[in-house]
Amino acid sequence: MVEQQNRVPCRLFRHGSGSISALVFAAGAVALWSTNALVGKSLLASHPVSQVQFLQFAGAALVFAAIRLMSRERAAPVTAGAALISLAVGFIGLVGTMVLQYIAFASMPVIEANLMAYTWPLMVAAAVIALENPRRPAVLGLAAVVGFIGVALVISGGRNQSWLQGDLVGYLTAFGSALCMAFYSIMVGRIATSPDRLLLPSALIGVALTFLWCVRDGFAWPVGTDLALGLYLGAGPMGLGYYFWSRALKLEGSGRVAVVAYLTPIASTLLLTLSGERMTMTAIVGAVLVIGSCVAVGVERSEAESHV
């Protein structure tokens, strides 16, 4: 009996330690992701999307390869079906999210594309309502609806107060990017593959695809600051950002960690505003609704996780 009682605090300690580690990894991901739109905006001003994306995937592949080499974890044998599922999750989550996001950045105001791309937490909330048994589905549903109303206001709050001021492709790709990231965040904690093994093949595929894209567009290798910024986007927001986020989700799912993740649109929007990006009052109201609903979803899911 005493031995059993002694085991309980140990389990609680390990759980607490895992929670702290998850929050640290999630905070690291948010810090890196918050710089993504700002740095991407500066590079897209003078370079095509294909070139920026090639540098990103090259930098990310180097990071994932370095992590793989330093890892002492041995890969458990997997079936062909499980390997294909892991590849699909990594490809959709990494390649799908980032390529679509940067097409959106190049096709519409970056600050608006960034807000739309970070509606993926609302999509995760909608999936939880549909697929799971949330503690308070009405609260999650209301938060998601308010968030999507905010997205509509962002879209309608264009430069001339009319709908779809940006390229229609931009709105569709921003929405598609959010879908890809929502899918990844739901799936990554449900598969056994480690983050580096999950992401490295997808990054290498991304390198190959974006290189062919560059060849089609005409390739001019950037130098100096632009080269460093492009590789930073790959090594930082894409490489370490995805790795940290994947580790956080594997440690604690999407409960308390989700609250930290929803700080990303707040921090990234603030940085873009400080850099000179401006929105109309309608779009600002929409942004407040999007960010507020994301935080509400995160708090609700965190409370549900704690209750369980």
List the helices and strands and how they pair.
Elements: H1 2-33, H2 36-44, H3 49-70, H4 80-107, H5 110-117, H6 120-131, H7 137-156, H8 168-187, H9 195-217, H10 224-252, H11 256-261, H12 264-274, H13 281-307
Can you summarize this structure?
The chain contains 13 helices and no strands. It is an all-alpha fold and 308 residues long.
How would you describe what is shown here?
The protein has one domain. The chain is built from 13 helices and no strands. The protein has 308 residues and is mainly alpha-helical.
Q: Specify the overall morphology.
A: globular
Give the class from helix and strand content and strand pairing. mainly alpha
User: Using only CA atoms, what is the Rg?
Assistant: 20 Å
Into which percent range does the helicity of residues fall? over 70%
Instruction: Indicate the mean pLDDT.
Output: 80
User: If helices are DSSP runs of H or I spanning 4 or more residues, what is the number of helices?
Assistant: 13
Q: Identify low-pLDDT runs.
A: 1-15, 158-163
How far apart are the termini?
Answer: 25 Å
Q: Count the strands?
A: 0
Supply database-style keywords:
308 residues, mainly alpha, 0% strand
